[in-house]
Structures are given as structure tokens and as C-alpha cells.
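Task: sequence design from structure.
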């Protein structure tokens, strides 16, 4: 075997080795990228699922529910395409079943009373996460501008309502303890919080209701007597503030 042949054989071996190494590296990169994509989609599913489950039921409109379900459904389809070993088909079936319930107005989420600073802060954190999710979906082109704007504005309104809920709960507690001045202050704080959503007619209706309640409490304080029926009426209105969304809208003064 002459020198030229040996050189060619060695060159061939080296070339073959390089090709094998390159192919191996490409496969490894593809495997790593696939793993990253699966992790990203699993996180997306879990994030949307957590928001759907943990945000107080009275805060989730059908539009927000369908938005979160769509996020979960998209993540499931991506995972199926990536041939994930997770029980994705079961996840997807559950999402689709829940979506049918939402469409049929039979999906009932558990309401949560915001009666402590901890609950208010936890709920606020969930709503902020939802806000960021809507923004990211809009930037990714999965949500149109009009829908994104509407949902973002509503979620911001819910953040304000979360703090108002806490102040209302504190006001009720003060009234039970006959600490009227503290109750009035708490209602002022609630009015200020919900008033931050000035472009929401529901918020403005609530501000008017709080102001009326404050005047009632000031009169009661001067008389030294508490009107239990008046307190119960406002409490009921506030507790059903979002549940009776349509009725509040009908009563709201849109011109103010």
C-alpha cells in the first residue's frame, strides 16, 4: 500500500469521524431543544391551570376562563406534537370538558372571601401573573389587540377590587365592634381603591354606594345607633358585585 493510499484512508477515517461527531452533536442539540420546549409547554400548562384553579371564582369571567383554557389547550397540543410522556391526552380531555361547561354556563368556581392581608396579597399576585400572561399571549400574536386590551383593563380592575374587598371586610368587622369611625375610614379606603378604575362603570357605581354608606354611618355615629338592615343591604350588594354583573351594569350611570 503506497503512501497516497494510506493518506487517503486516514483522511477518510478522519472525515467519517467528524461526520459522526457532527451528527451526534446535532442529535444532542435536538434532544436538548425538545426537552426545553417540553418543559416550556409543561410550565405554560401548569401556570394557566394554577391561575384557573386558584384565582377566586367570583373574579373569573367566562372570557377569562376561556382564555386560560385556550392557553392550556395550546400547551397540550404542543406537548402531544413533541410526544411527551406526560398524561397530556387526559389533560386535554379535561380542558375540553371544562370548556364545554363554561360555554354552557354550568362551570362553577368556588368564591373566596378576601378577609386578610395575606389573601389580598396572594390574590393580587395571581392577578398580576394573569396580567403578564395576557400580555405575553398578545405579543406572541395569540390574542388580538382589542381582546387583550379589554382583558388587561378588567384584570387591573380586579386588582383594585381585591384591596377594596379587604377594606370592606375590615369595615364590617369594625361595625360589629361598634367602632364606627374606623369603619368609615375603611370604607373611604375601599372607595379610593375601587375608584382607581374610573373607566369602569361598575367601579363608579361602587364608589357611589360607598359614599352613601359613609354618610349613613356618619349619621348613625351622631345618633349613636346602627341600622343593621342598611348594613346588610350594602354587604349583600358588595358580595354579589361581580356575580350580578349584568344587573349592576344596568343600574350604573354611564354618563358620570
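Answer:
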Amino acid at each position: 500500500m503506497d503512501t497516497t493510499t494510506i493518506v487517503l484512508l486516514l483522511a477518510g477515517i478522519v472525515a467519517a469521524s467528524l461526520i459522526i461527531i457532527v451528527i451526534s452533536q446535532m442529535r444532542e442539540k435536538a434532544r436538548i431543544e425538545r426537552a426545553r420546549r417540553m418543559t416550556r409547554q409543561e410550565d405554560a400548562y401548569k401556570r394557566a391551570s394554577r391561575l384557573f384553579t386558584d384565582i377566586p371564582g367570583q373574579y373569573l369571567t367566562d372570557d377569562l376562563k376561556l382564555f386560560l383554557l385556550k392557553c392550556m389547550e395550546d400547551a397540550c397540543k404542543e406537548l402531544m406534537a413533541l410526544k411527551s410522556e406526560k398524561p397530556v391526552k387526559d389533560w386535554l380531555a379535561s380542558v375540553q370538558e371544562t370548556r364545554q361547561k363554561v360555554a354552557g354556563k354550568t362551570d362553577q368556581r368556588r368564591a373566596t372571601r378576601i378577609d386578610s392581608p395575606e389573601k389580598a396579597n396572594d390574590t393580587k399576585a395571581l392577578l398580576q401573573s394573569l396580567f403578564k400572561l395576557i400580555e405575553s399571549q398578545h405579543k406572541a400574536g395569540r390574542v388580538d389587540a382589542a381582546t387583550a386590551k379589554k382583558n388587561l383593563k378588567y384584570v387591573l380592575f380586579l386588582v383594585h377590587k381585591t384591596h377594596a374587598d379587604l377594606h370592606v371586610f375590615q369595615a364590617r368587622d369594625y361595625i360589629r365592634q361598634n367602632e364606627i369611625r374606623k369603619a368609615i375610614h375603611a370604607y373611604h379606603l375601599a372607595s379610593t381603591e375601587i375608584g382607581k378604575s374610573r373607566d369602569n362603570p361598575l367601579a363608579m357605581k361602587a364608589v357611589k354606594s360607598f359614599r352613601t354608606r359613609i354618610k349613613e354611618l356618619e349619621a348613625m355615629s351622631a345618633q349613636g345607633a346602627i341600622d343593621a338592615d342598611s348594613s346588610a343591604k350594602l354587604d349583600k350588594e358588595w358580595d354579589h358585585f361581580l356575580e350580578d354583573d349584568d344587573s349592576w351594569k344596568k343600574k350604573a350611570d354611564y354618563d358620570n
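The CA atoms of residues 76 and 232 lie 46 Å apart.
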